[in-house]
Write a structure and sequence with these properties.
Length: 91
């Protein structure tokens, strides 16, 4: 199965991807950050992108054609969330 993970470079995403790969799935990680350990993360492809860049996100979607999506991308700062709630909603 092809699995798209947004935000797969974080702590939870890293371990999710390891488990998906152990189960034999092909994984694409879309994240604005570099993976915790890019050499051992296990995904087949990592794309550095802001997931709110909709044309680029759609292009990656069409190229990869995932069967399932795990949406883990999020803004992690509570003070930023309070100051800019529209950014959190968009993400």
């Amino acid at each position: 199965m092809k699995v798209l993970v947004t935000g797969g470079s974080g702590f939870i995403g890293h371990y999710l991807i390891q488990q998906l790969k152990a189960l034999g799935h092909k994984v694409l990680n879309l994240d604005i950050r570099q993976p915790i350990n890019p050499y051992h993360a296990g995904f087949d492809c990592w794309v550095f992108t802001d997931i709110t860049s909709y044309p680029y996100l759609y292009q990656q979607w069409r190229l990869f054609r995932p069967d399932i999506v795990f949406h883990l991308a999020a803004q992690t700062s509570v003070p930023e969330s309070v100051r800019f709630p529209e950014h959190d909603a968009r993400t």
